[in-house]
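Hi, here's the filled form for the chain we discussed.

Project: internal
Contact: R.S.
Residues: 290
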Amino acid sequence: MNSSVLFQSSLIPLLLITSFLSINFRSSVCADTAEYGNCSRPITCGSVKSNISYPFWGSDRPEHCGKSGFEVTCNDTVPMITVKKINFRILDMSNSTTTPTPTVTVARADYWNTLCPPSYIDTDLNFSLFEYASGPQNVSFYYGCNAAGISALSFLGFNSSSITHDCSSTVTVSFLTEKQSAKLPDPSTLGSCVAVVLVPVSAAAAEALDKNETSTIQSAVDGGFELNVQDNNTVLCNNCVASGGFCGQNTTNAEFICYCQNSTSANTCVSTSAPPNSATNSPAATGNHS
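And the returned structure, exactly as it came back:
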């Protein structure tokens, strides 16, 4: 057999192997690049871009860009998260590499623009995911208290007409801050009530209410309160971001992943330069409040 024919035939398997490896390499790089691009984007609800990123995921941010338990849904243009069957609007997120713990500002969706929710449920958290940041204080909402209880507020020095509102023809709601509630001799002062619900507000909002700026009660509730995000990968994520990557997780085993431009890593990217859009890793802009 001609030697040139033998040479050419021997090249065929080598070319096939080379082509196969090349295709797999390109596919891997493309996959890594797609994940990097997906995780570089904060959550967008409708046409409104938020500053909500890792460990949150949802909407146009795939699950591998966040962590289990931090799924965000969109109610039109409003990012929402459900904790213990309570829906919260996410108003803002602070996730800077200079702070040890990411924080989110949330407000209860059932109290948005109203003090009369469809059901009376105390604020509750999943403390494996969130904990209260320092500062928030509870406002106690008293629903359907009898007339004698409402009158008792006046004897204690409260302007009962300004802190009591009608929810319906048969149900009223009165509210007191923690400081004001401490003035009550005992919980029975307000008599028999249908329900008492605790809703956190910021320290500044509580102070305004204590100064009898009662017109601020709805804005105090809608202004929300801060939560610390409980994420044991915060240090890993900060290092990943500092190296130019975006944080995520392996959805199979829940292990941390740092997504780099052309690869993935268990901790940091090889490059030490931050990406052009690194601001989305450490958002400082205000989130959606509409």
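Let me know if anything looks off before we file it.
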